[in-house]
Amino acid sequence: MGRKLLLENAHIEGIRYYDTYRRNGGYAAAEKALKSMGPEAVLEEVKKSGLRGRGGAGFPTGMKWSFIAKPEGVPRYLVCNADESEPGTFKDRYLMEFIPHLLIEGLLISSFTLGANACYIYIRGEYAWIPDILEQAIAEAKNNGWLGKNIQGTGFDLEIYVQRGAGAYICGEETALIESLEGKRGNPRIKPPFPAVKGLWQCPTVVNNVETLAAVVPIIKYGGDEYIKLGTGKSTGTKLISACGNINKPGVYEIEMNISVEEFIFSDEYCGGIRNGKRLKACIPGGSSVPVLPANLLLKTAKGETRMMTYESLADGGFATGSMLGSGGFIVMDEDQCIVKNTLTFARFYHHESCGQCSPCREGTGWMEKVLKNIETGKGKMSDIDLLWDIQRKIEGNTICPLGDAAAWPVAAAIRHFRDEFEWHVKNPEEAQRRNFGLAHYADPLPVAATV
Amino acid sequence: MVQFSEEKLNKVKEIIARYPEGKQKSALIPVLHLAQESFGGWLSAETMDYVASLLQIKPIEVYEVATFYSMFNLTPVGKYLFEVCQTGPCMVSGSDNIIEYIKSKLGIGVGETTPDGMFTLKLVECLGACGYAPMMQLGKHYREHLTPAKVDEIIAECRAKAN
């Protein structure tokens, strides 16, 4: 069984509350950081740990922190990105709901390191019950001297506030999030300037994902050198994976980044295999925007090596034969699922969520949805497949923020790996409405799920 | 006339106090949530103008935000709003059947409200409950692992609460 750092105490009853959290070693890392380490040593430790942003982009956290500008007399802010909206991703929700103090402690250590005296947690509006949990944890932390003025006698002040969004995927993009926090539409900003220089209210700001900030706690507690011992290569430490789709045990799992994709899907410790004894057809391993992989490329790379649950291994082969770890939103599809229909739901999603600022994304996402809908409902033409390919090519890289790329990649990957399924839809419009294309050759030579 | 209670006005003040001096516009989204909860589950032009006056910003600044975010309803909705997820992970777990079931059970289409004003059906995009699919949002909470039987229970529960 893999070692757990974030969820190691998740099973303890009452861990949501301060007393239990504290009794089980909570706030020891904050004490260490504030009282005996100081900001520079904490930053060094985070750099040493190799921690990479857990929201999807995987940017080194220590490096991001080191970019923050420090002009005299200008406040700095830490913003916690809890907008978790990437389809397939529901890990941050789990952390916030069940171990809120882990996040609060992470925010305290991180704010201290950055020299921020105010921190905002921007949480997606639909998670409407979670702000109450977080605010209770904040109040408890404050009552125990971990927030407010002169924290634990160190002279450091910090206030944490929770702000709800109101339903907009784009607000997970850091500059759109900042706009939203300022009470505006979530239109991403042109970069540079980056938030580290001009962020919230034009002040230096760091925006990090919930899981990233929570991971700072074990890094400080055990040290960067210990953290790096878990995982492999540049995928250090542990990662939360939210697994969903046609598997026996959907849920949130903390994995050491040294297990294979096959083990993750089929072992009883994790997903427990494919539901109802079906066979694995395809998987989107890192949230809806990363490329879908057919089973044969999922479990082994194109070179025939075992595919691992790491940033590097999942990306092996580039977009031609690989994918990405992304946010850890792991969506598994069995032999009964229709790739065209699934791609259509994502195209509709990105069309709905496009902020409308850039024409290629605003127009292109709607166009892709329309063409996919035609193919799915039996009104497609062969030329539509090439048209789709053409549209996604023209969105990718031509927008202010990565939403355009996120919309293009799933369509491109679906056509790249499942073109025959699209063609089958066009050639057999009536049959395509009654049944799905099935496995074709995608699962060969794969074993049937062992036991159900 | 649209007017917050004393208690809600204090809440507004508390929200504004979270931001630096002069940055009260940042309170817009939280205050719009509060307004939607307080004034019938949707935002009328009058409500939005009221929020603008509270935050000392122009009404257009409120309209452009209210129209951007999908949680703000710009037309009246039923007492109970069923917001059912239809994105990939829910779809592969059978959300289509749940949506069809709700439609036939309530006798309404997507975006419609039952004649008694009790239920509105809205389809939404991923709500971050993919592992517990199919699901819907009902008020502040999620209803997960939906089955036709569970939908029946939820409808009965809403009816009982309304009586």
What best-fitting shape of chain B do the alpha-carbon axes yield?
elongated
Global mean pLDDT of chain B: 97
What is the subunit organization of this protein? Answer: heterodimer
CATH class of the largest domain in chain A, named Alpha Beta
The rounded Rg of chain A comes to 22 Å
CATH architecture of the largest domain in chain B: 3-Layer(aba) Sandwich
Strands in their spatial order, largest beta sheet of chain B: 2-1-3-4
Please identify the structural class of chain B as seen in this structure. Answer: alpha+beta
N-to-C CA distance of chain B: 27 Å
Overall pLDDT metric of chain A: 95
| Physical arrangement of strands within the biggest beta sheet of chain A | 8-7-11-9-10
Outline of chain A: globular
Query: End-to-end distance of chain A, in Å?
Result: 21 Å
Give the biggest beta sheet of chain A: 5 strands, mixed
GO molecular function (chain B): 2 iron, 2 sulfur cluster binding; active transmembrane transporter activity; inorganic cation transmembrane transporter activity; metal ion binding; monoatomic cation transmembrane transporter activity; NADH dehydrogenase activity
Protein name (chain B): NADH dehydrogenase subunit E
Keywords (chain B): 2Fe-2S, Iron, Iron-sulfur, Metal-binding, NAD, Translocase
Pfam family, one (chain B): 2Fe-2S_thioredx
Give a concise summary:
The complex is a heterodimer of chains A (452) and B (163). Chain A is of the alpha/beta class and 452 residues long. Helices cover 43% and strands 12% of the residues of chain A.
